[in-house]
UniProtKB/TrEMBL annotation:
<protein>
    <submittedName>
        <fullName>Cupin domain-containing protein</fullName>
    </submittedName>
</protein>
<dbReference type="InterPro" id="IPR013096">
    <property type="entry name" value="Cupin_2"/>
</dbReference>
<dbReference type="InterPro" id="IPR047263">
    <property type="entry name" value="HNL-like_cupin"/>
</dbReference>
<feature type="domain" description="Cupin type-2">
    <location>
        <begin position="46"/>
        <end position="107"/>
    </location>
</feature>
<dbReference type="Pfam" id="PF07883">
    <property type="entry name" value="Cupin_2"/>
</dbReference>
<dbReference type="InterPro" id="IPR011051">
    <property type="entry name" value="RmlC_Cupin_sf"/>
</dbReference>
<dbReference type="InterPro" id="IPR014710">
    <property type="entry name" value="RmlC-like_jellyroll"/>
</dbReference>
Length: 139
């Protein structure tokens, strides 16, 4: 985080999200809150710098699965394929069923954080797809 920025997420900034950087436009940060290995449920705080968003992606599962986002700080966007973007603000909860192509990230002028929860299911996997184009990204 740069010195001129005073954004402090509720659940901490975490470390640069280098492991998934290839699936993001801009910089994101990851702060794991729980461990699947320890408690069976993985929760992570993901923070996006202004304008950062992840690629289109799909959470697959034979049964159950999907993703839940609990928005905690700043302002962002969520969009499902074929639908208009939905503004995300603190307190917004988004339930994303398995098989739904979508993306999420910060607004152009705001840092943004959400807690991401991978819903339990059978044979779950993530498929990362194309970047969200500047033309498709909300103004």
């Amino acid at each position: 985080m740069s010195e001129e920025n005073d954004f402090t997420p509720m659940f901490g900034l975490g470390a640069p999200n280098d492991g998934y950087a290839q699936y993001f436009i801009g910089n994101s940060y990851l702060n794991p809150l729980t461990s699947v290995a320890e408690c069976g449920v993985g929760l992570a705080n993901v923070t996006f710098e202004p304008g950062c968003r992840n690629n289109w992606h799909v959470h697959h599962a034979d049964k159950g699965g999907g993703q839940i986002l609990v928005c905690t700080d700043g302002r962002g966007w969520y969009q499902e394929w074929g639908k208009g973007p939905q503004e995300l603000t603190p307190g917004t909860v988004v339930v994303i069923p398995a098989g739904v192509k979508h993306w999420h990230g910060a607004a152009r002028d705001s840092w943004f954080s959400h807690i991401a929860f991978e819903a339990p299911g059978e044979n779950c996997s993530n498929e990362w797809l194309e970047p969200v184009s500047d033309e498709d990204y909300p103004a």
